């Protein structure tokens, strides 16, 4: 299986790429900055240099030929401002979906954010006045991207993790349409994404995930 990861230099993406290659599959990390190629290649993945804010869906579709599934793990990042929350976190996700459809790729896994639909419309506007408003724009971007994906005929899964940690993986999680606020190691998020890809868990499902007491395979199987 060949899996392309948008936002390939992100921490979850690099962990996921390593897991994919360790499992005997092919990973392609999509990065904007050529300086990030070496980090992607150290995971065993192939790097693709592509700027999701500059490409159109036709060009990206051509570059995704031969890919079996895509993962959206991109984000504008801290300090990027409200505008780029929309152009990266929302529009980049939509571009990847458009390109996947054009390329005949049916499987799409979105890494979103817990409680994305709870954003305040009065604050989630551009330009944003302060950090609180920028975060509301971020939630809006995630919510709108998720809603767009849910409306497509792709075999989609939307993963909404809680607060992200750089601690070692636990291998046990709590999942549900909503779960109490909590945190989760990035490595466990990557493992959840890999599991949904390799056994087609949770197709057509959107769920929140935090650390918990149930092993990842059993927790995802319980989603139905």
Descriptive report:
With 224 residues, the chain is α/β, with parallel strands linked by helices. The chain is 38% helix and 23% strand. It contains seven helices and eleven strands. A nine-stranded mixed beta sheet has the order 3-2-1-4-5-6-10-8-11, sandwiched between helices. Strands 7-9 form a two-stranded parallel sheet. The chain is globular and about 45 Å long. The mean pLDDT is 96.
Tally of DSSP β-strands: 11
Helix content: 25-40%
Largest sheet: 9 strands, mixed
Category from helices, strands and their pairing? alpha/beta
| Unreliable segments of 5+ consecutive residues | none
Distance from N terminus to C terminus (CA atoms, Å) equals 24 Å
Physical arrangement of strands within the biggest beta sheet: 3-2-1-4-5-6-10-8-11
Our Rg estimate from Cα atoms comes to 16 Å
Helices and strands in order, then pairings?
Elements: E1 2-6, H1 11-22, E2 26-31, H2 37-41, E3 46-49, H3 57-63, E4 69-72, H4 82-103, E5 107-111, H5 131-150, E6 155-161, E7 163-165, E8 172-176, E9 183-185, H6 186-198, E10 205-211, E11 214-215, H7 216-221
Parallel strand pairs: 1-2, 1-4, 2-3, 4-5, 5-6, 6-10, 7-9
Antiparallel strand pairs: 8-10, 8-11
Helix pairs in contact: 1-6, 3-4, 4-5
Question: Short description, anyone?
Answer:
The chain has helices spanning 11-22, 37-41, 57-63, 82-103, 131-150, 186-198, 216-221; strands at 2-6, 26-31, 46-49, 69-72, 107-111, 155-161, 163-165, 172-176, 183-185, 205-211, 214-215.
Task: Name the descriptors.
224 residues; alpha/beta; nine-stranded mixed β-sheet; two-stranded parallel ribbon; 7 helices; 11 strands; 23% strand; globular
